[in-house]
Design goal:
373 residues, alpha+beta, Naphthalene 1,2-dioxygenase Alpha Subunit, Chain A, domain 1, 4-stranded antiparallel beta sheet, binds FE2/S2 (inorganic) cluster, binds fe (iii) ion
Length: 373
């Protein structure tokens, strides 16, 4: 099949194989998810020394935990002896040490090898050298970000720069004090679609009028399809008779008191490559993290964050959760509808980006550079 010539004002999407080729997915795992800063878990997911969570980062399983001093640590979830998984559960507590279930090698909460059967008769085993392999960690927005690279990229030049690109300055996000907020609700979605379909979907609002009736009620400018995530660095205003960012436009919860005037009655959204979306409204912040599991499967974990006083008081957050939960379901259903067609002969050369989606073209250029094309 020959490639279709597109008029100059239109650009092609990525060819279908970018969404179906396991080899390309493996390349993305190695060059993107295992190299960049990856948002792995919320700090409160591991509240105490010995608490842990395991997450998939690229092709690796990573343990996020806290040491005895309460500091965040992250390790590859692989025993240095013969490679058994150290933690097989998604979350829990190991108490004072990690112990491998196979031959009982035992590592302290900083990853150092502290005990093994007959260890004293094995003088060649250096306890630090044969400790768990630590990975780089950074805490920001109350989340634990990890990089599996030997030399991680600058957090400032990558993650924080994305915020500057979208919001003008990091301070515009800082006003929400996201690190101090509490998780009011978490919903995990298992999406049968390539992670890039989810990113592309999040970046455009061309679909909003078609699939998001509740969202366009609250944010009327999204109904014309031009608002787009790309254009909302000035914020999208709530509709005139809308009281809050809720499924029926009714009043929201206590607003975050540190917001600037121009953040009132507004919705802001940013994408932080490669796998985080942040949505900000006056009374809550919604943070999505994608965990790409396979070329055609992505787990998306979504947190709704409110003032701690709101969460502690037991106030009903369901109307605000319901709005974006529906948006998520609508978006992921659309992504799942595209995924099977990515292997169609008709999509061999990709599809078309209309003018309001041209920033998705920039995402594709970024991707191609990241995987070394
Ligand atoms: Fe872990 Fe042997 S594989 S102790
Ligand atoms: Fe959407």
């Amino acid at each position: 099949m020959t490639s279709t010539q597109l008029p100059e004002s239109l650009i092609a999407t990525l060819p279908g194989r970018y969404y179906t080729d396991p080899g390309l997915f493996a390349l993305e795992q190695a060059t993107i998810f295992e190299r960049m800063w990856f948002c792995a878990a919320r700090g409160s997911d591991v509240p105490r020394p010995g608490s842990f969570r395991t997450v998939q980062v690229g092709a690796e399983s990573v343990i996020v935990s806290r040491n005895r001093r309460g500091e965040i640590r992250a390790f590859l979830n692989v025993c240095r002896h013969r490679g058994a998984r150290i933690c097989s559960d998604g979350e829990g507590s190991v108490g004072r040490a990690f112990q491998c279930m196979y031959h009982a090698w035992t590592y302290d909460l900083d990853g150092k090898l502290v005990a093994a059967p007959n260890l004293t008769r094995m003088p060649d085993i250096d306890r630090t050298e044969y400790g768990l392999r630590a990975v780089h960690v950074r805490e920001w927005l109350g989340y634990v970000w990890v990089s599996l690279a030997d030399e991680p990229p600058s957090f400032e030049d990558t993650v924080l720069q994305e915020v500057v690109n979208r919001l003008g300055e990091v301070a515009n996000l800082d006003h929400y004090e996201v690190d101090t907020l509490s998780v009011g609700r978490r919903i995990v979605y298992d999406v049968r679609a390539n992670w890039k379909l989810i990113v592309e979907n999040f970046m455009e609002c061309y679909h909003c009028a078609t699939i998001h009736p509740e969202l366009t009620e609250v944010l009327p400018e999204f109904a014309d399809g031009y608002a787009a995530q790309y254009y909302v660095n000035h914020g999208a205003a709530f509709g005139a008779d809308v009281e809050g960012f809720t499924v029926d436009g009714s009043a929201g919860l206590d607003p975050i008191p540190t917001l600037a005037d121009d953040q009132d009655r507004k919705y802001y959204a940013i994408t932080i490559k490669p796998q985080v979306f942040v949505n900000m409204v006056p009374d809550h912040v919604i943070v999505h993290r994608m965990y790409p599991m396979a070329v055609d499967r992505t787990v998306v974990e979504c947190d709704w964050l409110y003032l701690p006083s709101v969460v502690e008081s037991g106030k009903d957050v369901s109307k605000s959760v319901e709005l974006f939960h529906r948006v998520n379901q609508q978006d992921f259903e659309a992504c799942e509808r595209c995924q099977p067609a990515m292997s169609s002969r008709l999509y061999r050369d990709g599809g078309v980006l209309v003018p309001s989606e041209h920033h998705i073209g920039a995402f594709h250029e970024w991707l191609r550079a990241a995987i070394g094309e």
